Amino acid sequence: MAKIWEEYRGYRLCLFHVNNATRTCFRSIHAEGIENLPKDGAVLLAPNHCAALMDPMLILATLPPLIAFGARSDIFAKPRIARILRWLRIVPIARERNGLSEVAKNFETFDEVIDCLAHDVPFCLFSEGTHRAERGMMPVKKGIFRLAKMAMERLPGKKVYIVPVGLDYEYFFRGYGRAVVRVGEAIDINEQFAREDVSEAQLYRQLCEDLRERILGLIGRIKERCHKGLPVRIPLAVLSLPVFAVCAVGALPIWLPYLLIMRKMEDKAWSHTVRFALSLCLPLFWIFQIGFGRLLEFYRNIFEDLRR
User: Which region among 60-64, 71-75, 226-230, 281-285 has the lowest average model confidence (pLDDT)?
Assistant: First the structure.
């Protein structure tokens, strides 16, 4: 079985397709602060988690191409899905709610993660432990710091960093908005665990609070769109209606199943993920999907401005 840090055949081609599918779901995707990624040690990425599978897809689309991820272990229950996830460099992380027998399997995963870090491939772990479609953050779990400490102890002479990452969405429950990935200043774990002024329990508590504050400082910063130019935008909207009709018909295989699936889903945080999955499977309709999404957002903005 291939190691999750290895460069294996077909991965970059698949990644190119995945990244393009991701970009069809948004009006724009930007990355900020990439220069903050350390180049001299092991890197653990710690993003907020607010849009299910779309969060790692945004990271893949904007940050260095070889990144491994941790995901909740229950999605690995079916062997075929587990093989696909592993090929995508995703490994299972059990949570306490899964039971002690499952949590015990984390040690095998941690061996793989540390091997990954030893080969300078970043590992991404969502520090809240679950997702929630809001711009705030739930408390940070200390698991990521325990993993970082384990890496520090087993990789002597190698610096270990935790890097806060803010995932910012213009909209959580509708598509075609803006998305921004912001990389914050790295936390030097070696330096933190060398402190002698606090107990280990206090240190973990302080680190969790610090990481949460750093991530909060990276989100909620998408600028409000411009509301001007209605006298020009309204005639353009009328003129574009024939183009919109063509795009809507062409994109029907994507947006109609999306509406039907989302009507049955209770967790609306999967909204972006469902749209992404349909786009991923139906690349022939991307050009229509892009036109449909952009024009739909254009019309929505006009209606919102008329109601202001």
Answer: 71-75
Chain centre distance of CA 13? 20
Helix and strand totals (H; E) in the chain: 13, 8
Structure tokens at 288: 């229509």
CB burial class (10 A; 0-12, 13-18, 19+) of residue 241?
A: exposed
Are 152 and 73 in contact by the 8 Å Cβ rule? The answer is: no
- CA dist 36 and 177 (Å) reads 26
H helix or E strand, kind and range, residue 181: strand 178-183
Q: Is the pLDDT of residue 99 over 80?
A: no
Lookup result for tokens 């607010």: 50
Distances (CA, A) of 224 to 148, 170, 180, 227: 37, 9, 13, 9
Map out the domains of the chain with their CATH numbers.
11-216 (3.40.1130.10), 230-307 (no CATH)
Nearest to 54 by CA among 143, 174, 137: 174
Place of tokens 């774990």: 189
pTM to 2 decimals? 0.90
